[in-house]
Amino acid sequence: MEYLYQKVSYLKGLAEGLGIEEESKEGKLLLHIIDALEDFADVIDELIEDYKDLEQYVEYIDEDLTDIEDELYELDDEEDYYPYEDFDDDYFDENFDYVDFDSDDLEEEPDEE
């Protein structure tokens, strides 16, 4: 970002070295263009700083969300996804229909009609 300020400073110095004054129409135009370029450099510098702050903030939010997901789902590794992966196929009967259920299903009482 510093290079923009250097270029604007160079243009200011060049205008002073050439003796460009605000008395002429062209001189007034050129000096105002240089001032506008300096304003653009200031705004771009502010935008870059704001972008860096926003990027850091989003990174913090992402880390917090990851922590919340880990706490909520408590899934530390793949064993939670595939609990039967460690067993050999010899333990399972191909002709039997296996049903997966949660321990919460055992605690529920059947509906009385």
Work out the radius of gyration.
Answer: 35 Å
Number of strands: 0
**Strand content bin:** under 5%
Topology as H/E string? HHH
Extract low-pLDDT stretches.
none
How many domain regions? 1
The whole-number mean of residue pLDDT values reads 80
Number of helices: 3
**Major sheet: size, sense and barrel closure?**
none
Helix content: 55-70%
**Overall 3D geometry?**
rod-shaped
InterPro entries: CD1247_N
Describe the protein in words.
The chain is mostly helical. The chain has one domain. It has helices at residues 2-17, 25-73, 103-107. The longest helix has 49 residues, at 25-73.
Q: What does the secondary structure layout of this molecule look like, with pairings?
A:
Layout: H1 2-17, H2 25-73, H3 103-107
Offer a quick outline of the entry:
This protein is mainly α and about 110 residues long.
